[in-house]
Fold each of these.
Amino acid sequence: MLAPVILAASRSDKMRRFISAAPGTKQVVDRFIAGETVDHVVPVIEDAAAKGLEVTLDVVGEDITTPEQAGDARDAYLELIERLKGLGLGTKAEMSVKLSMFGQSLDGGHELALANVRPVVEAAAAIGTTVTLDAEDHTTLDSMFAIHEELRKDFPQTGCVIQAYLFRTEDDARRLAAAGSRVRIVKGAYKEPASVAYLDKAEIDKAYVRILRILMEGEGYPMIGSHDPRLIAIAQELGRRAGRKLDEYEFQMLYGIRSEEHLRLAAEGHRMRVYTAYGTDWYGYFMRRLAEKPANLLFFGRSILTKG
C-alpha cells in the first residue's frame, strides 16, 4: 500500500525539500490549497456563499516547536476572524483547528493548547460562527476531547472530529451523540498501528457506517466528511430512517475535490460545507491528501514531470 509510505514522507524534511522544489508541485498544491493569505481566501468564501455552499477554514501548519510559534498560529486565526467579521457570512464560514498548531505537543502542551484555542473560539462566537477541533493521530485524542469538553462549557457549539478507522471511535461516538453536539466523522488520514486502527479499506468503510448510524440516531448534529458516493448515499438513507430533516446534518468535502458534487448536494437542499485550507505551511496537509486517494497521487506524479 502506498498510503503508509506517503504518510511517512509527510514527516521527512528531505522529502519536503524535494517536493517543494519540484516544478509541477505548485499546480497540484493550488488544487487543494485556496491560497497563502487571508486576502487569497476571502474571494473563495464569497464565491462559495454565492453558490449556496458553506465553508470551514483551516490555516495549515502543524510542525510547531516553540510556544511562540503556537502563539503565531493563534494570531493567524484571530486575524482571519477579524476579516470574516466584516463579511456578514455568519455560519457560512466556520473554522477548523488542529491543536498541534496551538502547542499541544510541547511541554505543558495540553494547557498551552487550551489557552491558545480559547480566544479563537471566543472570537468566533462573537461573530456568530464556531470552531471544530480536528482529530490528529491517536496519541493526541484524549487531550483533544478533554479540551473539547472544557470549551463546550462556555461555547456549546464547539465541534470535534472522530475517525472511523480507530477502534475507540464507536465508543467516542456514543458519548458525543448528545443534544447540542457537533461531530464530524471522517475515515482518518494518519499513519496508525494495527493495534489501534483498522488498516483494511473495507473494514474502515464498515466502521464508518456503524459510527454514522450512531450519530444519525443520536441527538447531536452529524457532519459527514466523505467524498465516497456510496457512503454519501448511505448517509442520506440513514438520515431518512432517523427522521432527520435535511438541515439537521451536513456533508463536508475538501476544497478542490468533487466540486460538482458540492453543488449537486446543495441543490438538493443539503447543507454542504467545503473544507478550505490556506497558508504557507501546506506540506503535511498536502501529503495526507495524496495518501487518501490514488488518483491524487497519479495527478501529482504527472505534474512533477512537467517542466517549467
Amino acid sequence: MASFSAEPPRIGWVGAGRMGAALVRRLLAAGYPVAVYNRTRAKAESLQEYGAEVVDRPVDLADRDVVFTMVSASDDLEQVTVGQGGVLTAADVAPGILIDSSTVSAEVSASVRAEAAKRGTELLAAPVSGNPKVVAAGKLTLAVSGPRAAFERVEPLLGELGQGVTYVGEDEAARLVKICHNVFLGVVIQSLAEITVLAEKGGVDRAAFLEFLNNSVMGSTFSRYKTPALVNLDFTPTFTMPLLRKDFDLGLAAARELEAPMPIASATAQLIASAIGAGLIDQDFAVLIEEQARRSGLALKPENVEVSDGLEAEDDR
C-alpha cells in the first residue's frame, strides 16, 4: 500500500445513509478523493455535487487505499465485504485497510477480519458515537480497535471525522465499547424520561427542569442535545427504537457470555420492547418519554419553547 505521506490516500466508502453521507462530506471537504457505493444509488449520487465519485458495486472500490463501511447490521457487513460483488472479492486487488464503522457483532467482525487478512487487508473496527448533526458540529467520536500500526497510519484521516479518536485495543475491542456505549444511551434516556415526567407531574415545566439539569453537575452533552425533543416532543429520528433494541440484544448477549450481570440494562430492554410493541418504531428513541408519561397517567403536550441542543455546526461558529 502506498505511503500516505506523499499524497492523500484514495478513499472508498460503502454506505451513504444519513450518517455515511455526512462523514463523506467531511472527507471531501478535507481534500480526500472519495468514491462511494450505496445500495440505493440515488443516495450516493447526492454526494457528487461535493466531489464524490459513485460506483456500482462494492468490489469497484477494491483498488482504494482505504475503504470505510457503514451499514446497518451484521448481515449487511458480510454482504458488502465477502458477499457477491463485495469489496474483498476482486481477483487481483484489495484495499490496504478496511475501516468498519457499523455496529455489528464481534463474531461477524472477527469473521470478516479473517477473510480480509487472507487478502492482505487489515481491518480496523471503528464504530462512531453521534449522528449527522453531531458530525456537522465536528463532535463525532470514534472507538477503534485492530492492528496498532494500521491505526497509526490512518489516525490523521480518522481525525477529520470528528473531535475524538480513541484506540481501545486489538481485534474486536471497539465492538464491545460501542455496544456498551449504546446500552448506556438507552439507560440514560429512560432515566431522563422518568425524572422529567416526575418533575412535570409535580407542576414543573419540562423546559425549566431540563435547563436546571443541564446547568448542574448532572448535565451532559447528551442531556442538552435531547432537551429540544423532550420539551417540544419533536421525535424526528436520529436513532430509532428498533436500532436501540438491536444494540441492547448485543449488549445483553455479551453480558451473558462474560458473566457480567446488568439488572438496570435488562429492565430498560423490557421498556424498549414495550414501546416498540406499542408502535413507537419510526420515531427517535427520545419518544420513550411518551411511554413513561402514559404509564404515569400524564398527557404530554409540546411546550413550544425555543431551547438549544448545545450543538453548533463548525461553519456557523
Amino acid sequence: MAQRFQLAGAVALITGAASGIGAALAEGLAAKGCNLLLVDRDATGLAATAGKIRGVSVETRVLDLTDAEAIRALPDWVAERFGHLDILINNAGVALGGRFDETHLDDFEWLLDINLRAVVRLCHAFLPMLRARPAAQIVNLSSLFGLIAPPGQVAYSTSKFGVRGFSEALRHEYAGTGLGVTVVHPGGVATAISRNARGRRPPTDPEAAKRASVEDEKAREAFGKLLTLAPADAAAAIIRGIEARAPRIVVGKDAKNAALIQRLMPVGYWKTIVRLSGGAL
C-alpha cells in the first residue's frame, strides 16, 4: 500500500459528477490520464461535465442513487464499457436542514438513501471487480460533519458519520491487500449543496409556513457563506490523496481546525467552536 497509485490509464467511476466536487474530480483525473465513468441524476449537468473532458475515454450514466436495482446493474455497464474498474469514488450527496423534531422521517430516509445506503450498495456491488485488480481504491466522501456534529444537522451528520465508520471498518477488513479505502472529510466547499438542500416541511398554518420559509432561506444563506473553498482545490487535494493511497483526507482549513478541536475536546468541542466563531454558528 506504500506504492503510489498510478492514475494514467486507470478507470474511475465518480458519482455526483454533474457539478461541484464530482465535476472537478472528473476534470482533474482526466488531466492525469484517468478514464472515466460519470454518474448523476442530472442529465444536463452530466453532459456538461463530459463535454469538458479531453484526451481520455469517458462514459456517462443518468441514475438515481435511491434506486437499488439500478446500482446493482452498474457493474455490468462498467464491464461492458471498460472491462474493469480501478477507482470507485462515492461523491454524491444531499443535505437536509432543520432540528430533528422539525424533520419529517421520509426526508431523513431520502437523505440516508443517497448519502449512506448508496455508498454501501455501490461498494458491495463493485467489490468483486475491484478485488480482481492488482491495485484498486475506494474513495468515500464523508464531510466535516462526519468529524463534528452541529445542531440542525442531525440527518446529515448521521449519514456522514456512517460513511466514516463504514469506510474505516472496510479499510481494516482489506488491510494487507491491493484494495485501499480512503475516507474524505471536506470542509466548506462552494457547491450547490446548501442551495439544493431540503428544509423542514412547511406547517399547515399559512402564517407559520411563511415564517418557516423565511427562516429556512436565512439558514441556507448563512450556511452558504461558510462554503468558500473552490471545488477544483478540493478535488486537487483528494486526487493527491488517492495517488498517495491516503486512508483519510481532511480538506480545507476549517475541517482541519475542527478535527483538531474535536480530538482535543471530544465531548465539549462544539462550545469551543461556537466561541471561536464569535457566536456566528
Amino acid sequence: MQTALVIGASGGMGYALVNELVNRNIQVKAFARNKEKLVALFQHHKNVEIISGDVFNEQLMMNASDGVDIIFHAVSFPYQDWDKYHMRCIDMVIKIAQRRGTKIALVDNIYAYGRQSTNPVIEQVRKEPQTKKGKIRLTMENKLKKSKVPSLIVHFPDLYGPNAENTILYETLKNVVQGKKANFVGNMQVKREFLYTVDGAKAMVELALRDDTYNQNWNVPAVHPIAGEELVEILREITGYQKGVRTVSQGMIRLFGIVSPSMKEIVEMLYLTEEPVILSGEKYEKEIGALPRTSYKVGLEETIAWMKKRV
C-alpha cells in the first residue's frame, strides 16, 4: 500500500492512524471538515496531504481518493446525529471505494455486540444489539459486507489517547489536568476496557497492510480491563492530583439530558458501564501476532503530556 486516505483524521483514532501510517512511510491524505485543526495536527508531517471539506461532497471525495489504495473510515458524529448521518456516510464511502477500486478499513466500536452473557467476546458471536446505536453500527457493518468492496471491520472498546477528546474518559482526564474536581462515568468498581489509541492504530494498520485479513471482523482489546478506582490511583501517581472524583450515575445523566441532547443520547449506552463487553484478542494474536499493549500508566502519561502541550 502506497497511499491511504483517512477520513475523520482530526478525531482521536483518525489522528493515531495518520501517525501510524506515516511511521510506516506511507503517504497519507488526512481528510476532515475542520482545516484549522488538521493544520494544527499535521502541518509538520511531510508525508501528509491535508484535505478539508464535507464527507458528503461526492466530487471532493472522488478527488481525495485519487491514487488511494485504502480508505480508513474513522468518521463519527455526535450521538444525536447518528440516525441522520452514519448511513449516508457509509453509503458515500462504499460508492467512492467501488468507483476507485479501493479497500475500506472501518473503525468500529463494541455497540453492535449488544449485551453478551460471557466474556471475553469473540468475533463470531451472534450480534443482537438492543440499543438504537448498536443497531445502526450493525447495519453499517452488514451494508459494507454486502457491497463486495474488500473491507475489514475493527472493533475497539472505549478509547483514550492524544487528541481523543470525544471519549468517555476524556472528561475525567481534562478535569484532572486542569486541577478541577473530576467526574467518572459509571461504577468505579466495575472493570472495563479503555484502549490506548496508539495501540489501536498499530493493530489496525497492521491488519490493513495484509491481504488475508479482509472481509473479516477483528477485535482489538485494551491491555486489560481496569476499574475506575484503579485508573484514578494511576492518575494520582502520575499527576499528584488530590481532589475527589465524582461518580456520574445514570440518574444524573438523565437529568442533564433534559437540557442537553447529547447527554440524553448517552443514557442508552450506560449498560456498558455495568455489563461491560470485554473483547477477546485471541484471533488477532493467533493469526497476526502479539497485540500492541501499552500499560495504562504509560498511555495515560503520554496522553496527559499531550493535553498539557495543547493548553
